[in-house]
Amino acid sequence: MQGQTRRVAIVTGAARGIGAATARHLASQGHAVAVLDLDLEACDVVCEEIVAAGGEAVAISADVADEAAVDAAIVTVVETFGAPTILVNNAGITRDNLLFKMTADDWDSVMRVHLRGAFLMTQAVQKHMVSERYGRIVNLSSTSARGNRGQANYAAAKAGIQGFTKTIAIELGPFGVTANAVAPGFVQTEMTEATAARLGMSFTDFTAAAVAKIPVGRGGTPEDIAALVGYLVSESAGYVSGQIIYADGARRG
């Protein structure tokens, strides 16, 4: 593990995309990983990949916006691996629409998963981090936090994640806990494929249009984001806290 201490990590929304890549990356660093998502079958697949590569993982099905489900999930993690000291709040959904078409349910569903979910998970895990006098929290935001047509709910939630992150960094810092947010730009996942479909574009055309605005000349991958998260949860990142790190290839516009 190259000098890193084995820690117990929880990654939410870890059945696919950025979450799955992050779970695999943290396991490759030597951490025991709880792969948490509503989709238990998909979590099992990720866990099987981790174990086949020599890592430790457990699949847990839980709704991050359900307080009882979150509490039960943390109990399972503690009983399986011990106290969790790494938390990656990645779980998220989209319910995109223009403001005049967006329903209250569209708004509430997105806020529930992104904000309530991050709050409940962090609140449940922080007591273990405080007890251990060590913790790393990474919340997934998005460049959409700056505003994005058709995503009033998602943009507001991701902006909220940034304020939440900065506040818990202040509150938990004295206990050896850091908190940071990663805000990805265009990353090729099932979620961005769904956005392309909403816009009536092929994913190929959608990707080409996005890449045309990215100076590094390519879209991001889940592994790009996982690598950044891996640094932020490392012991080496102990002086990095309360930061919002945009990973967008220096996108213009």
Question: Can you tell me about this structure?
Answer:
This protein is of the alpha/beta class. It folds into two domains: 8-185 and 221-244, 3-Layer(aba) Sandwich (Rossmann fold), CATH 3.40.50.720; 186-219, no CATH class. 47% of the residues lie in helices and 15% in strands. The protein has eight helices and seven strands. The protein has helices at 17-28, 40-52, 67-80, 104-132, 152-172, 190-198, 203-211, 222-232, and strands at residues 8-12, 32-37, 56-61, 86-89, 135-140, 177-184, 244-247. The protein has a seven-stranded parallel β-sheet, with helices on both faces. Helix 1 (17-28) runs parallel beside helix 2, helix 1 packs across helix 8 and helix 3 packs parallel to helix 4 (104-132). It is globular and about 45 Å long. The model has no long low-confidence stretch (mean pLDDT 96).
Termini separation (Å)?
Answer: 40 Å
Total domain modules: 2
Question: How many strands, what sense, and barrel or not for the largest sheet?
Answer: 7 strands, parallel
Reported CATH architecture of the largest domain: 3-Layer(aba) Sandwich
Mean pLDDT: 96
Shape, please? Answer: globular
**What does the oligomeric state look like here?**
single chain
CATH topology of the largest domain: Rossmann fold
Secondary structure class reads alpha/beta
Strand content: 15-25%
Identify the CATH class of the largest domain: Alpha Beta
- pLDDT < 50 stretches: none
- What's the helix-strand series? EHEHEHEHEHEHHHE
| Rg (CA only) | 17 Å
Please name the fourth-level CATH homologous superfamily of the largest domain.
NAD(P)-binding Rossmann-like Domain
Q: Figure out the total of helices.
A: 8
Number of strands: 7
How much helix is in the residues? Answer: 40-55%
**Strands ordered across the widest β-sheet:** 3-2-1-4-5-6-7
